[in-house]
Design a protein that fits this description.
Blueprint: H1 4-37, E1 44-48, E2 64-69, H2 72-84, E3 90-94, E4 107-113, H3 122-132, E5 133-144, H4 150-165, H5 175-181, E6 185-191, E7 198-204
Parallel strand pairs: 1-2, 1-4, 2-3, 4-5
Antiparallel strand pairs: 5-7, 6-7
Helix pairs in contact: 1-2
The structure holds S-adenosylmethionine.
S-adenosylmethionine binds near residues 7, 54, 98, 114 and 115.
Length: about 210
Amino acid sequence: MITSHSIKQTYNRFSSLYDLIFKPYLDFGRERAIKQLAPKSGARVLEIGVGTGLSLEYYPSNVEVLGFDYSYGMLKKSKIKARNLSHCPVNLMQMDAQNLAFADNSFDYLLGAYVLTVIPDPDKAVRELFRVARPGAKVVIMNYIRSRNKLMGLIEDIFHPVFASIGLFTLNHDLPGLLKQHGAQDIRIEPTSLLNLHFIVSFTVPA
Ligand SMILES: C[S@@+](CC[C@H](N)C(=O)[O-])C[C@H]1O[C@@H](n2cnc3c(N)ncnc32)[C@H](O)[C@@H]1O
């Protein structure tokens, strides 16, 4: 089982190596996702689980980014990036996606990159995301989605306990199903990575 403690420990330790592994593999999705989010000039974007800040360089200069992460180690890296990237204002903080310190209906644009299936209780995190989003808000999530291919699904089921036990990620969630359950509208799903394991999922929060 993935726990908040193991996530924090793993991502704190892993933060120095993270960019080396995940920048080349997943960057294409990050850039495309922010283009899809297309925040209006002057908007404030909430980024959930900002990690080492690999997405920050892709935001347009006319928006403000508010990002948070649970891991202090990952945040230390994103704070350095934010200081060096001066094209748009970025505020970063430590927070748990399952318990957000924002008022209801606070954001029109929300983004989460490869984070929802890392969180121990994704249902709670999605509920929080919908709570802080304004009615009609645009949300773009990049994530691994469990394969519909039987063989691939079986491989994922075998590896899930290994990755979950070290607090890296889980492989057993039906993310589109979870979003539908919460009332997500106009859901669009596009593959991004080479093996079609990662997707950009965009949707609108019901008005
Ligand atoms: C796979 S990394 C993705 C980081 C970044 N979004 C990216 O695109 O590279 C997952 C991130 O989610 C963060 N995370 C996990 N659980 C969290 C939670 N409950 N609240 C906030 N962040 C969390 C981890 O600390 C880690 O930085």
